[in-house]
Amino acid sequence: MRFIRLLQVGTLFGVLLLWWVVTTFAKIDPVILPGPGAVLRQLVDSNICRPAGKGSARMQCGVQGYFLWQHLLATVQRIAVGLGAGVILGVLLGWLLSMNSVVRAVVDPYLGFLRALPPLGYIGLLIVWFGIGDVSKVVLLFLATFPAVTVGTMTGFARVKADWVRAAETWGATRAQIFRRVQVPGALPEILTGIRIASGLAWSAIVAAEMNNGIPGIGGLAYISGTQLNTALTIGSIIVIGLTALAFDLFIQIFQRKASV
């Protein structure tokens, strides 16, 4: 385990070193690829207040009117609502579909259809229906995550061995006890895998969700800074998105390991 951690840290430093060498000695235009130092400066500047101009007494705080952590917090709140709704409804629907093969056969193609849709394909339609506020963003995140959780839950309950259920019935367990003690623990690994996939899909869709009126929002910041050719801030925002998504994924993995004990 220690060797793997050292390998991961060493790989990270190797990537950063290669990035620095390429941007320092290859004379690449910073608009195309800024160095790691420029990205770090942008991340620091986006969390402090500084004079709005030379000799100006007015202070400018953060970027686009907000600190970076405020952008990130706004995005996390949107993802929490969209992903949370996707998890709750996905688990309920997946459980119901696992109980009825006929309904599952009818609904499954539509779930596959939703899973295949790219967020940019229907964000315009959601804006027409729900406006450019947070509702359209949350709905997009819900649509991006809901099918994965549903399929994971449905698969999990379907894979619970019938022998386990019959054994519990032989011992006199009630239907509620069988559901709580046999079916839920048996399906939980697949459910959590579906939630992990859904979490990744939510973060991968956040820039599309925040393209319109996404400030404050880390995805909106990445998009706007890109249109303004502030590549260093774009890369910094992408790094923040990736690290936060990784933290979400690690949290789910920890829960998975505890649930499997």
Given as residue ranges, the uncertain stretches (5+ residues, pLDDT < 50) are none
Helix coverage percent of residues? Answer: over 70%
Strand content: under 5%
Largest sheet data: 2 strands, antiparallel
Euclidean distance between termini CA atoms: 20 Å
So what's the overall shape?
A: elongated
Reading the helices and strands in chain order gives: HHEEHHHHHHHHH
Radius of gyration: 23 Å
Question: How many DSSP E strands?
Answer: 2
What would the average pLDDT be, to the nearest integer? 88
Number of helices: 11
Structural class: mainly alpha
Question: How would you write the strand order of the largest sheet?
Answer: 1-2
Please give a quick description of this structure:
By secondary structure, the protein is an all-alpha fold.
Structure, explained:
It is built from eleven helices and two strands, in the order ααββααααααααα. A hairpin with a 7-residue loop joins β1 and β2. Helices cover 77% and strands 2% of the residues. The longest helix has 32 residues, at 68-99. With 261 residues, it is an all-alpha fold. The chain has helices at 2-25, 36-45, 68-99, 101-116, 119-130, 134-158, 162-170, 175-204, 206-209, 218-227, 231-260, and strands at residues 49-51, 59-61. Strands 1-2 form a two-stranded antiparallel ribbon.
